[in-house]
C-alpha cells in the first residue's frame, strides 16, 4: 500500500455561480452572479491510504500538522476553519512550524487566501471532551464566505454562502484525564423529548426528492436539520430571517431522521458558539421514526444590526463512524433593538 499526503477534503465551487429569478412567463433566468471560491484543507501526516488517523492525548497539548490553501483562481478565497471534538466546538490555537504563534486560541479561524496561497501550521489544543480510556472523534470543517450577510432583509437568502464542508472523522484516544474545566457542564439531554414523525413533514421531503427516491430511504441516513422562527410553521426548507425582540431571540429547531446515534447540537451567532436555553449545547439520542421539534431562545449582547445564526450537529461518542456532522442553513438575524 503506497503512502500519501493526507488532504481530507477539497471544496470546489463554480466561480460565477448564478442566482435565479422568475420571469412573468414562469421561467427562471440569471439576474446576478456571485464569486464563491474554493479551498482545501487537511493534515500533513504521512499515513497509509486506508489507515484510520488516530491521535493520543497523554496530558500534553495535541499538536497536528495542517495546511489550508486557496484554490479559486482570480479571487480571494474566504472561509472559516474550525474543529469539533466529541461533537463539541473545540478551541484551538495555530502555530507556524517553527513554533511562533500564528493564531491565538479561537473556536473559528478565518482565512482569506489568494489562488494557491498556502499556509502550513500546527493545530494545538487540549481536548474539550472525553473520558479516560475513551476514543472520541476529531473532525475539521470549513464554512465558505463566513463574512457574507444579505443586506436586503426582504430577500435574506445566503444562497451558496456559508456552505459547510468537513473532513473524514479521525480519532483521539484519551489516555489522560481531561481537565474538569475543559468540558462545558451546562447541557440539556433531550432523549425523552422526541415525538413521532408526521406524514405532513414526510410529504414535504418527498416533494424535494428526485423521481424514484423514497423519503424513508433518504432520512434513514441523512437527517433533516433546520431552524425557523418560533412563531412560524415547521419547514423542511426555510430561507429567511429571525428578529430580536424584548425577550431576545426565539426560534424553533427541527431534527428528523438520521441514524440512531447520540448527537450534540451547538448554536452559533456570527460563527461563535452561544448559549441557548441557558445551556452550552443540547444532546439527543435519535430513534427510528421519531423527530425533535424544540423551541430555542438565546440572549446575545451587543448584536450588530445584521447577524448570522445557525446550528451544527455532530455525533458524540464512538458512533461518528456511522454518522458525523450536519449544519442548518444560515438565517439572517436582524436586530432592530439597538
Structural class determined from secondary elements: mainly beta
Uncertain runs are 1-34
What's the CATH class label of the largest domain?
Mainly Beta
Strand content is: over 45%
Question: What would your notes on this structure say?
Answer:
By secondary structure, the protein is mainly β. It has 2 domains: 3-181, Immunoglobulin-like (Sandwich), CATH 2.60.40; 184-334, Immunoglobulin-like, CATH 2.60.40. It has helices at residues 199-208, 215-219; strands at 3-5, 9-12, 17-22, 28-34, 38-43, 46-48, 54-57, 62-70, 77-85, 88-89, 92-95, 101-106, 108-113, 118-125, 135-144, 164-166, 170-174, 187-189, 195-196, 224-229, 241-245, 248-256, 262-269, 272-274, 281-285, 290-298, 306-315, 325-327, 331-334. Strands 18, 19, 20, 21, 22, 23, 24, 25, 26, 27, 28 and 29 form a 12-stranded mixed beta sheet that branches. Strands 7, 9, 10, 13, 15, 16 and 17 form a 7-stranded mixed beta sheet that branches. A 6-stranded antiparallel beta sheet has the order 2-5-8-14-11-12, with no helix packed on it. β9 (77-85) and β10 (88-89) form a beta hairpin. The longest helix is centred in the middle third of the chain and has 10 residues, at 199-208.
